[in-house]
Each structure stands twice: as structure tokens, then as C-alpha cells.
Write a structure and sequence with these properties.
Blueprint: E1 7-21, E2 24-37, E3 41-45, H1 52-59, E4 67-72, E5 75-76, H2 82-91, E6 92-95, H3 109-119, H4 126-139, H5 156-168, E7 174-178, H6 186-203, E8 206-210, H7 214-220, E9 223-228, E10 231-237, H8 238-243, H9 248-255, H10 262-271, H11 300-304, E11 310-311, E12 317-318, H12 321-327
Parallel strand pairs: 3-8, 3-9, 6-7, 7-8
Antiparallel strand pairs: 1-2, 1-4, 4-5, 9-10, 10-12, 11-12
Helix pairs in contact: 3-4, 3-5, 4-5
């Protein structure tokens, strides 16, 4: 990538809170900031319930923000209205985790893919509309014959390909992929990830890839953001993160990735970082670092202050008092 990378999506101090009872606030996304550059894939990882999906949905305006700002090409995502809103919806799409739940079972595949084409008036006549539907089916590895079938007639992997074709049909620039492979068989997961990489090169797409499978995230992502309890704890290039993880939480996550070699795995097992304690509740979180209760390096300052996300060199950002002391 060139030195002057174009920022497509800029997220600053984004918060998404939910009121879940009397005086109870769930901080699903808590003061998160990052940029996504045109043409790249930003992977977003973390344990279940860490706020990845909520962050992705709030970033594109499917959820209202509680605070902070999200700019897409310089425009505030949560304030776009009228014709600009329609244009924005065409440029930004989402592929959901469950391909069966997100596709209407009463519609044929042609109707599902053609819906966006109709809404945005992308075809001048029926023939062009049909040609576009066939084009996007073939682009994701399906056949023309699939157009008149219903969703229940397909396997999980094929359904996800239909979901991807539906997103592509409106010719977007940016796609949020919300755990697009977690509901699929392991043998199919790599096929879908390779398809996404191929489509990105062919069409010039930009992705936010939300997942908890760290090996797949490494395969597809240019940079990776690590979330813990709604807070961004580390952000850097994929190579740097996997070679030199700095945050204790990231180190623990990476040490848990299994290696398909019994000998190596046995040796690694002794060195694995096992986190003590339970993930604390995201409701009414106490002050200080959210990871302090599970961190063996916790210091008094961790009890009082939330560490800021700090650049420790070469675009490697980390939110950790220990890391900042070591860099000083």
C-alpha cells in the first residue's frame, strides 16, 4: 500500500450502550476508535460477547450510536438523510452470520439478489436485471440454474454465497462481514474466505471482517483489531500482531490457537497462557482496565485508570499500562 492511504471509514470514540434494567447499563461498545483504509480488510476479533457484532452494526448505522462519531468518506453515518442515505445504503452492505436466518425463505434466489437491483434502479430493463442476477451468482461460484430455487434447497455454504451475491448486487464499496463463516462446516470455511479474498481483488472491495477464529482472521486481514469487553485493546498489522502480540489478552488468545501437529501441540501446551477468573459482566463495569481481574501483570494504576490506546511504534496500538511503561 502507498504511504498516503485513503481512509474510507473513520471511527472515533464510538460508544453503544444499552439500558438493561434499573440503573443498569451494558457498555457493548465503549470508546472505540480506528480507521479502515480503502481496499483493505480490517479483522475484528475477541471472545463471544465482547461487542464485535454490535461495533460492526453501529459503524454502518444499523444501530444508533450512544456517543462518538463514524465518518464514511467524510460524512457522518448517523446523520445521513434523504438521497444521500439511499446512496450510502448502496455503497455499504453487510453479510450476516446466519445465512438461513438472513435470507427470506419465501423468495427465490433471483428475487433475493434482484431486490437490491430494483431498489437502487441498477437495471434498465428485465433482461439486464436477469443478466445481472446471473452475473453475481456466477461471481460467487453458483450456477444460473440456482436462480429459481428457494433458500431451503441449499447447503449452508451455498446460502452464504447467496448472501454475498445479494450484497454484491448493489455494487458496494464497503462490506461488513459479521462472522460469515462461523455457522459453516470447517471444510467450507476456507472456501468462503478464499472467495472473499478473490472478490476483493477483482472488484476492489473494503472489508470489516468480524470473527473469533484467529487463524482465518490472519489469512484474510491486513490489520487486526482486538476487542475485550467492548474496548479496543490492540490494533496493528496482521503479521505484527501474530509475531509480536503486546497486550496480555492478545497473547492469551493467540496461545490458544491449536496447531495440527501433536508433537508441537504437546510442547506448546506447557507454555499456553491460561487466563484466571471469569470474564466480568459488561454491565456497570468498574473503573480502571477491564482486563485487570484476569491479568497477572495488573498494577495499582490498572485499578484506577483505563489505559488509553497508544501507538508504541510502527502503527502498533495497544491499551496496556505495562506495555506503555516498557516502551517509556
Amino acid at each position: 500500500m502507498s504511504q498516503e492511504k485513503e481512509v474510507l471509514l473513520s471511527v472515533s470514540h464510538l460508544k453503544k450502550y444499552f439500558n438493561v434494567g434499573k440503573n443498569a447499563v451494558l457498555k457493548a461498545v465503549d470508546d472505540v476508535s480506528f480507521d479502515i483504509y480503502k481496499g483493505e480488510t480490517l479483522g475484528m476479533v475477541g471472545e463471544s460477547g465482547c461487542g464485535k457484532t454490535t461495533c460492526g452494526r453501529t459503524c454502518i448505522g444499523l444501530y444508533d450510536r450512544t456517543d462518538g462519531k463514524v465518518l464514511y468518506k467524510g460524512s457522518d453515518v448517523h446523520s445521513i438523510t434523504g438521497k444521500d442515505r439511499q446512496a450510502y445504503k448502496k455503497e455499504v452492505q453487510m453479510v450476516f452470520q446466519d445465512p438461513y436466518g438472513s435470507l427470506d425463505p419465501r423468495m427465490t434466489v433471483a428475487e433475493i439478489i434482484g431486490e437490491g437491483i430494483d431498489i437502487h434502479h441498477l437495471a434498465k430493463d428485465k433482461q439486464e436485471r436477469q443478466d445481472m442476477i446471473y452475473k453475481y451468482l456466477e461471481l460467487v461460484g453458483l450456477n444460473r440454474e440456482h436462480a429459481n430455487r428457494f433458500v431451503h434447497e441449499f447447503s449452508g455454504g451455498q446460502r452464504q454465497r447467496i448472501g454475498i451475491a445479494r450484497a454484491l448486487a448493489v455494487q458496494p464499496e464497503f462490506i461488513v462481514l459479521d462472522e460469515p463463516i462461523s455457522a459453516l462446516d470447517v471444510s467450507i470455511q476456507a472456501q468462503i474466505v478464499n472467495l472473499l479474498i478473490e472478490l476483493q481483488k477483482k472488484i476492489g472491495l473494503t472489508y470489516l471482517f468480524v470473527a473469533h477464529d484467529l487463524s482465518m482472521v490472519k489469512h484474510i486481514s491486513d490489520r487486526v483489531a482486538v476487542l475485550y469487553l467492548g474496548t479496543l485493546v490492540e490494533l496493528t498489522t496482521s503479521e505484527e500482531l501474530y509475531a509480536h502480540p503486546l497486550h496480555p489478552y492478545t497473547q492469551a488468545l493467540l496461545s490458544a490457537i491449536p496447531i495440527p501437529d501433536p508433537e508441537v501441540e504437546r510442547e506448546r501446551d506447557e507454555k499456553k497462557i491460561r487466563l484466571e477468573g471469569e470474564v466480568p459482566s459488561p454491565i456497570n463495569t468498574p473503573p480502571g482496565c477491564k482486563f485487570k481481574g484476569r491479568c497477572k501483570y495488573a498494577m495499582p494504576i490498572c485499578e484506577e485508570q483505563m489505559p488509553p490506546l497508544t501507538d508504541v511504534g510502527n502503527g502498533h496500538f495497544v491499551a496496556c499500562h505495562k506495555c506503555m511503561q516498557e516502551q517509556a
